[in-house]
Amino acid sequence: MSYLKLKSAILSLLVLMVLVGIWHVATLPTKSSVVSTMTPEQLEYAKLMGKAPEQAQTSVKSSFPTPADMGVTIVAQLSDPFYDNGPNDKGIGIQIAHSLQRVGLGFLLAALVAIPLGFVIGMSPMMYRVLDPFIQLLKPISPLAWMPIALYTIKDASLSGIFVIFICSIWPMLLNTAFGVAGVRRDWLNVARTLEVNPVRKAFQVILPAAAPTILTGMRISMGIAWLVIVAAEMLVGGTGIGYFVWNEWNNLSLTNVIFAILMIGLVGMALDLMFAKAQKAVTYAD
Fold it and tell me: Fewest CB atoms less than 10 Å from the CB: which of 122, 192, 198, 284?
């Protein structure tokens, strides 16, 4: 197994090197001929002045950042990630911390609502039929569509971002919890009924351990969606956060910082996903 992991890591590193090589080649300076943009009169004048067409060629550097430019930006940003020079000039560490705080609060509120409600829906077919039309109506709505209503009612940009995370996180957790609870083996429930286990103990000692892998799957999906949505939400509301950082750097025409922020978004998202994958593996049992 360790050999397989080592081999996979080496192949991943090779793929990364190939991609960086392609990036480097694509951003190399190119020869640009001024003659091709000259009018016939300008070309005739250049000939009269003794300037051959081939002498009008210049080397033009690509406007897209090179890997070397990105390396300089990464070192500069990570050397002091928590600096604070005012509202529009904060380090990447502070921006990510603000985003994670919003995501964490919205996600926690969604879990407090979705998991208990999912238990009720999973254990009661009647409740499922009652609530299913509302779930199917609200689930496809883009979380960002709720932003104007949140800003109007809450009147706070940061709290509105948390509300949007709550809305986008609740549905995967709710549906997966209901599915996991409804899928608990009838044999286990019959044994609990035979032993006259009270409902609370049955929920925590029989249903929850059996449904935990499915619940964690829903939480993992919700966290991935939440991290996607917070970037877009922060672009709209501004203030702080990794999404605002991206938008602010784009307005400053700093493409290297934009790409750096994109890389950081991907790394943080990958870390969050790995965390839930570990938790999911820990509660998964073999039959």
Answer: 198
Question: What are the DSSP calls for 62-118, one per residue?
Answer: -SSPPHHHHHHHHHHHHHSTT-B-STT-B-HHHHHHHHHHHHHHHHHHHHHHHHHHH
In tens, the pLDDT along 228-256 reads 999 888 888 877 889 999 999 888 888 99
Contact 32, 60 (CB under 8 A): yes
Every domain range in the chain assigned CATH 1.10.3720.10 = 77-283
CATH code of the domain occupying 77-283: 1.10.3720.10
Instruction: Give the rounded percent of residues in the chain with a pLDDT score beyond 90.
Output: 34
DSSP 50: T
Query: Which region holds residue 73: left if phi is over 0, alpha if psi is between -120 and 50, else beta?
Result: alpha
Q: Which residues contact 109 (CB under 8 A, 6 or more apart)?
A: 162, 166
SS3 30: strand
Output phi, psi for 115, to 5 deg.
-70, -50
